[in-house]
Specification:
This protein is an alpha/beta fold. It is built from 15 helices and 18 strands. Its cofactor is [4Fe-4S] cluster.
């Protein structure tokens, strides 16, 4: 065994492949711990059923989540959902999460399907979010998932790694979403293509698991292969609450003298709220450059920012206030568990009293499932992408922000610095 220092990605892929001393650029047959497919699982099923005599190699590793169009909007989608349900029942797939469970990533993490050190592949590019629990998550295509069903393995190239060190204290009105928009703007949409991003530094350690999810989720918008936060007791507590036994036993950590292709140091102490402007995520500007822009819609949702603490922040700003009559505001909780907790603790009543529309948990407007815009309309969204046509008309605009900025802007009807209502 070589004594060469290794990054997290090297160690995770070595464990999953059984190959020692993987170097960046090396390809190995990796046995993922989970293969996740979302609403379009029927695509995998259709391909799998064309494989003569194929059987699921590891049905216990297969996870399906009906999240992108939930509930079904058409008879075609309903039939696709039914096909997935029937396949899961016939093939003994226990990790099946139906339309009520919410977004795939949150459903898996909240139900104990993710452990530190796992390798997880999923038919959603934001599978990088699993790095918040110290796992290696990466997005793949439907054909790759189908092959993993049959073979139990998938080839992966070992990525180079970028070390991002976050230091300082977050100023008033600034959140992990702002950090990520700043990094995406600076590093660009392809600045980390097929690289593993590791988050380190004092601020990273101070962040909650939910906030770390935002870091790892948005990392995809820099083109990364995966993202990772070193697991600690916060991680282990989250995993135990989700039903994972002894999560600390599987945790992996990079060596202190590991080699990185790039090191980025960011002191957040002077950072101001950030906005991603149409029509790409790396078109980022400080909020002072776009404040006052009139809005037609505000969307709080997505796997990036529809977690419980995001809803707490939104509710704290909207409490006792009314949303501008010129704006429609949609709030889509990320999971059934988040919806339940928000209901029990009164957050939904605050949002409803303020004038917000609450929808069922799921991807919702982020995936174009509701909240469509007409020509010339503008949405401020807490999602992770603002591509042209993602929320309706190709002649509409999507801006991205933190939940706090979204809430403050819903009150005024235009993009508003949240520090103005948080003072």
């Amino acid at each position: 065994m070589s004594t060469t220092a290794k990054t997290f990605a090297q160690k995770a892929l070595e464990r999953a492949s059984g190959v020692n001393d993987l170097k960046p650029g090396d390809i190995a047959d990796v046995a993922p711990d989970i293969y996740m497919s979302h609403t379009a699982s029927w695509r995998c099923i259709a391909a799998f059923e064309k494989l003569d005599g194929a059987v699921l190699k590891h049905p216990e590793r297969v996870a399906m989540v009906m999240d992108h169009i939930s509930p079904a909007r058409t008879s075609l989608v309903a039939s696709q959902h039914r096909r997935s349900r029937q396949f899961a029942e016939a093939r003994g797939i226990d990790k099946f999460f139906d339309v009520q469970e919410g977004i795939c990533h949150l459903a898996l993490m909240e139900n104990g399907c993710v452990r530190p050190g796992d390798v997880i592949i999923g038919t959603d590019s934001h599978s990088t979010i699993y790095g918040a629990l110290g796992a290696l998550g990466t997005g793949v295509g439907f054909s790759e998932i189908t092959a993993a069903w049959a073979l139990g393995t998938i080839w992966m190239m070992t990525p180079e790694s970028i070390k991002i060190s976050l230091e300082g204290r977050l100023p008033l009105g600034v959140y992990p979403k702002d950090i990520m928009l700043k990094l995406i703007g600076d590093l660009t949409a392809d600045g980390a293509t097929y690289k593993s991003i590791e988050f380190h530094g004092g601020l990273t350690r101070d962040l909650s698991v939910s906030e770390r999810m935002t870091l790892c989720n948005l990392s995809m918008e820099m083109g990364c292969k995966n993202a990772y936060v070193p697991p600690d007791e916060k991680t282990f507590e989250f995993c135990r609450a989700a039903g994972v036994e002894n999560p600390e036993n599987s945790a992996l950590y990079p060596d202190e003298d590991a080699t990185y292709s790039e090191t980025v140091n960011l002191d957040v102490s002077t950072l101001e709220p950030q906005i991603a402007c149409p029509h790409v995520v790396d078109n980022v500007k400080p909020i002072s450059d776009v404040a006052g822009l009139k809005l037609d819609q505000v969307f709080v949702g997505s796997c990036a920012n529809a977690k419980y603490d995001d809803l707490v922040e939104v509710a704290s700003i909207l409490k006792g206030r009314k949303i501008s009559p010129t704006v429609r505001m949609m709030v889509t909780p990320g999971s059934r568990g988040i919806l339940k907790r928000a209901t029990e603790e009164g957050l939904l009543s605050i949002l409803i009293d303020a004038g917000a529309l609450i929808t069922n948990p799921g991807c919702g407007g982020c995936a174009g499932d509701g909240g469509a815009m007409g020509d010339g309309e503008v949405t401020l969204s807490t999602a992770n992408r603002n591509f042209r046509g993602r929320m309706g008309s190709y002649e509409s605009d999507i801006y991205l922000s933190s939940p706090a900025t979204a809430a403050a802007s819903a009150l005024t009807g235009s993009i508003t610095d949240p520090r103005e209502v948080l003072k």
